[in-house]
Design brief:
single chain; alpha/beta; 8-stranded parallel sheet
Length: 228
């Protein structure tokens, strides 16, 4: 099935990304993640065939129900888990995703390490930062970030790749700039700075601002697939 709206939306997003990069002298790659919460597998597959190489899953049960319907050539795309993750659900996704972006506590990171050891793999993670100090959102407080980074660096089967954040709707640019500052400070702290290379920030409403302030993964749902 052809979803013309998805194709048009993807082209528009790509054009916007390139425009922001050109306007601000950004030369590095900015990856567009298709956030698939509530999206039928055939629409996800269409987006992959259009060029999407990164899928973001929010809910463990929904992901496991849909995964078998996704296109089977894994060379074309990778899957990250981006939603709130309970400790007892880690075991279900450890062999099914290439990164967990929502690591926000030592307890969760320790569980990821345990499950990765059992699976004989190393799991890439991002630490989620509650940059807006919102009660309704997950994430470590900025003043606790350095401590959690040090603790994560001690986990042998976890590779810390960067930070993730969801700024509040309508947040001023200073908050995005602060998030980039935290990323820069964290990169100077970690044991493997060359591998600390991901700032996941920006969604359908704010991705152009996020790119301006250093985001290199943007998580796009409604702007790509339409309202759900």
């Amino acid at each position: 099935m052809i979803y013309t709206n998805i194709a048009d939306n993807y082209k528009r997003i790509c054009d916007n990304v390139e425009r922001v990069k050109a306007n601000h002298g950004i030369t590095g790659e900015v990856r567009i993640m298709a956030v698939t919460k509530g999206v039928e597998p055939d629409k996800v597959n269409f987006a992959i065939n259009e060029g999407i190489s990164l899928i973001g899953e929010n809910r463990v049960q929904e992901f496991l129900q849909k995964e078998s319907f996704y296109v089977k050539d894994s060379r074309n795309y990778e899957i990250h888990f981006i939603g709130g993750l309970q400790n007892n659900k880690v075991k279900y996704i450890i062999n099914h995703v290439s990164m967990i972006q929502s690591a926000d506590s030592l307890k969760l990171i320790t569980e990821i390490n345990k499950r990765a050891q059992a699976a004989e793999c190393t799991m890439d993670v991002l630490i989620e930062v509650n940059i807006g100090d919102e009660d309704t959102k997950h994430g470590v407080q900025p003043d606790k970030l350095s401590e959690l980074i040090a603790q994560t660096d001690e986990q042998p089967n976890v590779q810390l790749r960067g930070l993730m954040a969801i700024p509040p709707y309508g947040a001023e640019e200073a908050m995005y700039a602060r998030m980039h500052e935290l990323f820069t400070e964290a990169k100077a702290q970690v044991k493997s700075p060359s591998r600390f290379d991901v700032l996941s920030m920006g969604m359908s409403e704010d991705y152009t601002v996020a790119i301006k302030h250093g985001a290199n993964i943007i998580r796009i749902g409604s702007a790509l697939f339409g309202s759900r």
